[in-house]
Amino acid sequence: MGEVRGLQGAESPPGLVSVGRRPWHVGIGAIAAGLALADADPALAAAVAAAVLVALLALGAGRLAAVAAALVLCGAAAGELRLAAIDGPAAGVRDRERVDLTAHLLTMPRPGPFGESAEVGVAGGSLRGTRLLARAARWAPLPRGVRIGEELRLRGTVRAGGEGSSGFAAYLRARGVAAELLIDEASETGRRRAGLAGALDAMRTRAERAVVAGMPAGEGALLRGMVLGQDEAIEPGLREDFRDSGLAHLLAVSGQNVMLLAALALPALALAGLRLRARLAALVVLIAVYVPLAGAGPSLQRAGVMGLAGIAAMAASRPSSRSYALLLAAAATLAWNPRAWADPGWQLSFAAVVGILVLGVPLASGLRRLGEELLPPRAGAAAAARWRSPAGRAAAVARVSAGVLADGVAITVAATLATAPLLAHHFGSVPLAGLPANLLALPAVAPAMWLGMLKIGLGQAGGAGAALAEALGGFAAAAVRYIAFLAERCADLPGGQLALPLGSPLAVLAAYAVLAAAALAAARAVRPLGRRLPERAARWRRLPRALRAALVTAVALAGFAVAAPAVDGPDPPGRLTVRFLDVGQGDSTLIQHPDGAAVLFDGGPPEGGVARLLRKAGVDRLAAVVATHASRDHHGGLAEVLRRFPVGTLLDGGDGTGDPAFRELLREAAARGVRTVKATAPLTLSLAGGALRLRLLSPAPRPPGPPPEDPNPRAVVALVSAGAFDLLLSADAESDALLPLELPDVDAIKVAHHGSSDPGLPELLDRLKPELAAIEVGPNTYGHPAPSTLAALERAEITTYRTDRDGTVSLTIDRGELRVDTER
Fold first, then answer.
1. What's the burial of 412, exposed, middle or buried (CB within 10 Å: 0-12/13-18/19+)?
2. What is the mean pLDDT of residues 535-560?
3. Is the pLDDT of residue 317 over 60?
């Protein structure tokens, strides 16, 4: 977020100057408006042109009025031509057509619940030039390790319409994607793109290797997301943490990256002895290479155009107009794709910059003035002499630091406020934690970005450069680790998310009107304080230095005392607690003993966010993790758990499976020194000094030979006991596997297999006699939970909870009494 390096002396906010003195602003804005209307009804474009004509006439800009109205219509016409060129290749797409084609990979494959997806550009045939969203199921994945620019042979079925969802179809259209391709078979041809695109692909490959060199996998994936925008390798739970903490913009390459690239490159180019014009030319080349290298998303396109406009103004020795650069960026990005304005990233990017221009500039000015008044005054001619003394150097550093901090705070506050209504509109909530999170992240963001960019540059050189890039990995990892820690903690702050569903454009406009009114009211309220600031600042400076230091320290300590408990996270429960975690369509059950021992049965699917749910429950380590069987919706989230928490023992219920994801889980456990035990009955695990017992009732050891195709009947069945309380957990093992076992009466059960149809369930309930049942289930197409299962539970008069309706269900056992709390 942000294009502002030094906010002092910036131009007045747009709208506060006469439109008659800004003809180029008006003209470019009119063209941008016309381009945005290209996909709308022509009558709407005509109405907007008429409105522009009337408005400018009313403002006294008669000469501009007719020209601006004409430019709106010209922009709409040009946009229609551009859309025709974009949609032209899609004319050959026929829904449900079987195809066999070659295509170049345009984006890195992104994992999802049912497989992975990536955008591809068709390289030959009747669909040549068409952009498709290729969907690969788990049983027919894309080749492992495939990179952007590689050519693939794809066989499958074309599906137009975007998964039957009009909203998703509109999203695809905004990205220029003509249709989906459901892949049956994918293979590499061994060829790559040629020409300039191929050269950029080769640079990107070297950049991807260099940016993660010398770093642990998790930190490397984060830095690659921050610098190159490739966030597909970041664990889903951590991506959610960044989103809910208001730090998601760090993973969307944007104007901040271009600004930091310029701040890194210009001093280096100056040290190389280049003159100003040569430095600016080199910076143009760097930006022109970096934008496509990092994915050329809407926000980065905007930043690149604004950066190039600013450099051109510097080269021409003219003051840069940020508002003009912003309008030029809007026109350029819409000329490339007139539908880009519908992309949330485009909207948020422009809203952030407008917020910085309108709110950030005056806020930064006020904060800088406050810092200058509170710090010791400059001494003019004596400045050089003071610099030679330690106190003088400290004062100078303090002034520079105060200015940088003022700009950083102003940018963060302005961008956060300006994007809040759009976040509420698109995502239904506003991350209130975003403001403190971004302020706390300020010291680490620039070092992390600079180190990542430096590693990329060194990686292009190869040899000694690549070795130096690897040596810098430890420093980059430290900065990234701190940012990830902030994302985790701030995402969990109580009240960190404000539910605010702004469902219509009118509601968004109303929210911006409220923000504008609040900003004006705040400015009027602060104005009298500004007039009294010099007098009060003088009183502050007259205080003894020791007293001022003591007061500042006391305020800092008080702030830390207030913030530390919230950032530290919740404490574990003081009573035996069982949590049936809401991980979507999957299983994950957490047992926490008051002595501190915690046991996790399964981790749901990778996108279920189980690690975050564990943090919210106060878990800092796990005595045992049970992988009940090889099924993505059970073991998929456990690799993240092993990476994020110390684990004592892993009970391996894989039953000898060859599932690649489950084998990766076992390798992760071995790499982290986690003791692994085969989960076969009979087996008893005693924890918390024997107060918590896990007794495995099934499966028995398997005879030699390949594992069965269906792992569900041999899933781990366990009895968890603490005092007089008994809980039966049966994963996906249904009554056929459970009825032959010796089953005691229990207090609670987790209904097997997400509540699927199970004819033997009534008999099973009659034997177990539970008081409470929980069904761990999420939105699905399998019909879970089955009506027959719900009916059997109702007939047995068992109180039943469902994670799809109740959220996480917490069962607390206190002196023999069961208390249930639900998230919803």
1. buried
2. 76
3. no
CA distance 756 to 73: 59
Cα gap 94→179, rounded to integer Å: 9
CA 227 → CA 25, 165, 207, 467, 731, distances in Å? 32, 32, 10, 19, 41
Please state at what angle helix 322-336 crosses helix 344-355, rounded to 10 degrees: 170
What tokens were used for 57?
């006439």
Residue with token string 């963001």: 445
One-letter amino acid at 576 equals: L
**Residue 17, pLDDT score:** 45
Structure confidence at residue 319 (pLDDT): 53
The string of DSSP letters for 297-332 reads: -HHHHHHHHHHHHHHHHHHTT----HHHHHHHHHHH
Quote the CA–CA distance of 10 and 30 in Å, as a whole number: 24
Rounded CA separation 56/64 (Å): 7
What is the SS3 assignment for 253?
coil
Q: Is the dihedral of CA 497, 500, 505, 507 positive or negative?
A: negative
Q: How many CB atoms lie within 10 A of CB 361?
A: 22
- Does residue 699 have a cis peptide bond before it, meaning omega lies within 30 degrees of 0? yes
- Sign of the alpha-carbon torsion through 6, 7, 9, 15: positive
- The predicted-structure confidence for 61-71, as pLDDT tens digits, reads as follows 777 889 999 99
pLDDT in tens, 418-456: 999 998 998 888 888 888 888 888 889 989 999 999 999
Give the residues across from 260 on adjacent strands. none
Which two tokens mark 200? 């950029």
User: Would you tell me how many other CB atoms lie within 10 Å of the CB of residue 306?
Assistant: 25
| Dist CA 793 CA 709 (whole Å) | 30
CB 93 within 8 A of CB 178: yes
Give the CA-trace dihedral at 51, 52, 58, 60, to 10 degrees.
Answer: -170
Identify the pLDDT of residue 591. Answer: 96
Q: Identify whether the C-beta of residue 616 lies closer than 8 Å to the C-beta of residue 492.
A: yes
DSSP codes joined into one string, 34-48: HHHTTTS-HHHHHHH
Q: What is the pLDDT of residue 296?
A: 64
Q: Which two tokens mark 745?
A: 């009466």
Residues facing residue 466 across a β-bridge: none
pLDDT band per the 50, 70, 90 thresholds, residue 488: confident
Distance of CA 257 to the CA centre of its chain: 16
Q: Which residues of 711-731 are buried (b: 16+ CB within 10 A; e: fewer)?
A: bbebbbbbbbbbeebbbbbbb
Residue type, 396: A
Q: In DSSP terms, which residues pair with 748 in a beta bridge?
A: 727, 772
Distance separating alpha carbons of residues 339 and 171, to the nearest angstrom: 9
End-to-end CA distance of the chain: 35
Whole-Å CA distances, 292 to 204, 289, 297 = 9, 6, 8
Give the pLDDT confidence score for residue 164 in this predicted structure.
44
Residues 6 or more apart whose Cβ sits within 8 Å of residue 60: 20
Distance (Å, rounded) from C-alpha 488 to C-alpha 491? Answer: 5
Structure tokens of 224?
């690659």
How many residues are there in the chain? 824
pLDDT per residue as tens digits for the range 143-178: 888 888 999 999 999 988 654 445 677 777 777 788
Q: What is the pLDDT of residue 670?
A: 95
Look at residues 480, 559, 498 and name the one whose alpha carbon lies nearest to residue 242: 480
Alpha helical stretches, state H, 543-659: 545-568, 610-616, 632-635, 638-644
Q: How far is CA 249 from CA 225, 236, 494, in A?
A: 10, 16, 22
> For the purposes of burial, counting CB atoms within 10 Å of the CB of 167, is it exposed (0-12), middle (13-18) or buried (19 or more)?
exposed
At 148, list the tokens: 């952007």
Q: Give φ, ψ of 186 to 5 degrees.
A: -135, 140
Looking at residue 19, the DSSP 8-state letter turns out to be G
Find the largest Cα–Cα distance for the chain: 94
